[in-house]
From TrEMBL:
Homodimer. It comes from Jannaschia seohaensis. This is Nudix-type nucleoside diphosphatase (YffH/AdpP family). InterPro entries: NDP_pyrophosphatase (IPR004385), NUDIX_hydrolase-like_dom_sf (IPR015797). One of its GO terms (cellular component) is cytosol. GO terms for biological process: nucleoside phosphate metabolic process; ribose phosphate metabolic process.
């Protein structure tokens, strides 16, 4: 038995993604029906990757201007794992292209580790997350993003222990990046003194 009954959908905006208002009935746990209205934003699904250089023990991260953070009164230049929208491509294929565009680096051994939902109360997006390797001293391109899309991306090589400290103290707060750093650390093991194995 379905606990969801759609009533109506109204498109509020479709300039980049689609912002829609949904009226629906939802069966509550006590069996009664409750009519609700919610707005949902759909701009497609994405992919993100954290690359690690095992020789230098650095991770490849990026920093760029984010208007929503500026509007929320937060630091508008968050430190993030490279990411992008799928645009109808396979996640790994799109991520390889996005890595080259944003950072100028090619990924080795790109491995899917998890699919994340970022804000399930209002956004349809899920992000395919990958871990891979790179060589810090061997970029294959310029990186920096797509200028025609207004991107001006700073490429960062942060030692993994420092990146973990930045997660702990909040300097890295982007959810997908936090999960990927923690996944990488856990996959390597953490010693009892908090050091990374």
């Amino acid at each position: 038995m379905d606990d969801f009954r759609p009533i109506s959908t109204e498109t509020l905006s479709d300039a980049w993604g689609a912002l829609t208002r949904h009226r629906f009935a939802l069966r509550r746990r006590d069996g009664t029906w409750d009519e609700q209205v919610r707005e949902v934003y759909d701009h497609g699904h994405g992919a993100a990757a954290l690359l690690h250089d095992p020789e230098a023990d650095t991770v490849l991260l990026v920093r760029q201007f984010r208007l929503p953070l500026k509007l929320a009164g937060q630091d508008p230049y968050p430190i993030e794992a490279p990411a992008g929208l799928l645009e109808n491509a396979a996640p790994a294929e799109r991520m390889r292209a996005e890595l080259m565009e944003e950072t100028g680096y090619e990924a080795r051994g790109l491995t899917h580790v998890i699919d994340l939902v970022m804000s399930p109360g209002s956004v349809t997006e899920h992000i395919a997350c990958f871990i891979g390797a790179y060589t810090r001293d061997a970029p294959s391109g310029a990186g920096g993003g797509a200028a025609e899309e207004g991107e001006d991306i700073e490429v960062l090589h942060i030692p993994l222990p420092q990146a973990l400290d930045m997660v702990r103290d909040g300097r890295i707060s982007d959810a997908k990046t936090v999960v990927l750093i923690q996944h990488l650390v856990l996959s390597r093991g953490v010693s009892p003194d908090g050091g990374i194995g």
